[in-house]
Amino acid sequence: MENIMIGFSNVFQLSNLFxxxxxLMVGVLFGALPGFSATMAVAVFVPFTYVMEPGPALLLLSxxxxxxxxxxxxxxxxxxxxxxxxxxxxxxEGKAMVRRGKAGQALNLVTIGSCFGGFISSVxxxxxxxxxxxxxxxxxxxEQMFVAIFGxxxxxxxxxxxxxxxxxxxxxxxxLATFGQDPVEGFPRFTYGLSxxxxxxxxxxxxxxxxxLPEVFKMLEDPFGKMSESGKVGSMxxxxxxxxxxxxxAWRSTIMGxxxxxxxxxxxxxxxxxxYNEAKKASKTPEEFGNxxxxxxxxxxxxxxxxxxxxxxxxxxxxxPGSAPAAIFLGAMIIHGxxxxxTMFTEHADSVYTMIxxxxxxxxxxxxxxxxxxxxxxxxxxxxKSVLATVIVVLASVGTFATNKNMxxxxxxxxxxxxxxxxxxxxxxxxxxxxxxLLGTTMExxxxxTRTMYEGQMYxxxxxxxxxxxxxxxxxxFVFPFVKMHLDKKKQQ
Length: 493
Description:
Residues 17-433 form the DUF112 domain. This protein is mainly α.
């Protein structure tokens, strides 16, 4: 308790409060720009922390991390273009709500969901770190394999309107995920003599292409129009009924997000899709998903923001980063003479508890900063579509190039965008592309290492209790949508 009080006193120093607010504002900006991300924001500002004390340095990185994950949801709602891959499910629902004149409600739901998920994850970081670290110790390659397969079950829910097309898109996208070096043995596959394909298709350029360029092409169908005639997002007021309806949804998604966060190699993008899928399964009105569902927005935002705190749990307790930004946190801590592990909470208690308490405060302050950005962001709706389309293409190109400093990625982005536009015009779902590319490499690597661990005797993985539980849950996740569709048809008859 004494350490917690020290953390409170450090966080509420005026200089540290300014660091939290400033870091949030910059982080949201990084998240809102296509191609930029929370990882990039944290990486860019690590050198600035060299001259800072450990506590304030960790507060700055935490604010950038939280702001970056949240920021991608603002353009996802306003123009249907996710600033980060984790905001892709939000784009599906947010753009539909904008078309229905509920942009203000969508932005408020996004901000509330983000703050709730992030705040609860910081409480989990404070209270449950030792317990959840034990779970992290149990997670090996077999568990990661089933987490990836479970994630792919989301394709079934995302493609209910045309299951064959959705599965076909997911299958082709999984094949694309095999391009490049074998993740275990290292030999090149499907490179066709192109050195740029040695590392495979980078996920970020493809995601920017499939989610941003189709929107640009739609804008150019009416280049002299505007996104909105008023430039106002409308009322941001949310009724008690929506809050009450989403209470269980928010808690379920947040808990799932924290758990996904502590699993190495998982991240907010995977959590967003998983939580979105589970919300659709549990919903009494699944037909609203894809047409502006408040449940879908809350689920995705609570899930992807809960990963922020969850990914720091194995980092602080075991020295194992649960995400890419957490890995950068690890480097920053080592620079400041802090070695994450079991002794972290005793040897560096003041800095650690300052970061944890600051993490909670940052997620509360994010509501105020987020509302400010939402109001300013609404001016996007007044820009003529021809100008907005040009700006989006420029930002998407710059963001894509900045990812790997590679023009080949820019070409991949444009080709992906054209293909996605053709797919949308022919009623093929594009969400399975994102899901398969995000999970394909993880699943293949985990599967190869698992086969090596058990010398080809894959049935042995079911001797692990956690693996068995995940396997049963995965089977249920694949079967449930088909059972539900069958029961719905019977009910209609």
